[in-house]
Amino acid sequence: MFLNDAATIFAASFIYMHILLSTAYFPPIAWMGIFVNQPSVLIDLWETYPKQSYRNRCRIATSLGVLDLNLPVKKPNGNQTKSKDILIDYQQKWQQLHWKSIKTAYESAPYFLYYQDDIEEIVFTNHSHLHLLNETAILRISKLLGFENPVYYTADFIKPLTHHSDFRFSIHPKSPQFIPTPKYYQTFDEKTGFLGNLSVLDLLFHLGPEAAIYLSKLKMDI
């Protein structure tokens, strides 16, 4: 639900009963597995926006290996900008580039034709803020897979927690993959080998409806 929605969680003491995630652009499979499998997930938009994370980046599989799609953003308050205030930079033609890259990577995947219109619509629908685009993508993909999990946000920044419910900073492109993503068929696996924990788009285009079963079976020590 949107940031100012009445359903936003306000009680900070309630945090310890929830899983914490960052916002994410076409999230990696590990992120999506947590989101659909946990009954109480909060997304923190009050953090100071960090660089080089999944917040504005997704990873797809190409014939040459992993390709990072980085969404250009603007920081109204410089390096002190909160994630909730991050704007999307439309001066750069990233939408055309991202869609072309996604189409080239997955047009031979079994379910690309089935889902391409939904994903293309997400990419080309303009949103002022990064978190609004991310929320739209998360909810649309969840619905396509039969999940009805709502998106809830924290009401303020929560200091990093030492217990195992805080995944805001551990699910990161440069961090070791601590939630295993079992092998499944990928178009270019004979060339590249299996590439784990890519964007949920990879799972969607290759497994179709079975992606829901895959996500539901992820074993997470939470």
What report would you give on this structure?
- The longest helix is centred in the middle third of the chain and has 15 residues, at 130-144.
- The protein has one domain (14-217).
- It is built from 7 helices and 7 strands, in the order E-H-E-E-E-E-E-H-H-H-E-H-H-H.
- The protein is globular, with a radius of gyration of 17 Å.
- The protein has helices at residues 29-37, 94-106, 112-124, 130-144, 189-192, 200-207, 210-217, and strands at residues 19-21, 41-43, 57-62, 65-70, 73-74, 87-88, 152-153.
- It is of the alpha/beta class and 222 residues long.
- The protein has a 3-stranded parallel β-sheet, covered by helices on one side.
Order of helices and strands: EHEEEEEHHHEHHH
Low-confidence stretches: 1-15
Task: Kindly state the percentage of residues in helix.
Answer: 25-40%
Report the sheet with the most strands, covering strand number, pairing sense and barrel closure: 3 strands, parallel
List keywords for this structure.
7 strands, disordered N terminus, alpha/beta, 3-stranded parallel sheet, 222 residues, two-stranded antiparallel sheet
What's this model, at a glance?
The protein is an alpha/beta fold and 222 residues long.
List the helices and strands and how they pair.
Elements: E1 19-21, H1 29-37, E2 41-43, E3 57-62, E4 65-70, E5 73-74, E6 87-88, H2 94-106, H3 112-124, H4 130-144, E7 152-153, H5 189-192, H6 200-207, H7 210-217
Parallel strand pairs: 1-2, 2-7
Antiparallel strand pairs: 3-4, 5-6
